[in-house]
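Subject: sequence -> structure tokens, single chain

Hey, anyone have a minute? Need the predicted structure for the following. Not urgent.
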Amino acid sequence: MPDDLLSCRRCPRLVKWREQVAVEKRAAFVHEDYWGRPVPGFGDPLARVMVLGLAPAAHGANRTGRMFTGDRSGDWLYRALHRAGFANQPTSERRDDGLRLRDAWVTSPVKCVPPANRPTTEERDNCRSWLESELESLERLEVIVCLGGFAWESAHTALADRGAVVPRPRPRFGHLVISETSEQVLVGSYHPSQQNTFTGKLTEGMFDAVFEKARALIASG
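Reply:
Had a minute. Here:
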């Protein structure tokens, strides 16, 4: 876990919000110590699949210190990763709960929780070096599963900045849309937010299809 990431204060708005949430807390977690810092990526350093979200959730990763941990979106994600064989268990509640990922890495383009889950373009750009460092360190990476349009755009931009050849024009984001770059293949997926899962825009079958596709791509790579 890089110390320089954990001490990052590049974005005043995000610093203020992550720390405010950690003090005010949600009633259900009032007796817990919130993480309240940038949240690093998590998983297998030999991963061939990256799962890229948006940013830490206020009372999920900003509380627990691990991406998609302690919230409803994480429940959906880790159940799907477990069914696909990328996780040793279907639950993710806290950093010391025994969860291990196999061949997968979970992260986000913005490392601090944003108000209303809406980071600005400047905040995304301030954070891009962290994502680029992850892309560089994951030497076996073949597939990036992008959870939502923000992740889709962030992944294309970060790869282009690294010198990868990306499609022109970029494919429009959509569920199970594929974008092939000279470094990794991107797979689009609706984000497992409650807005999408409660309304049926994303079903478990649809989510499973994304990770089945990722598994097939690394098998054929």
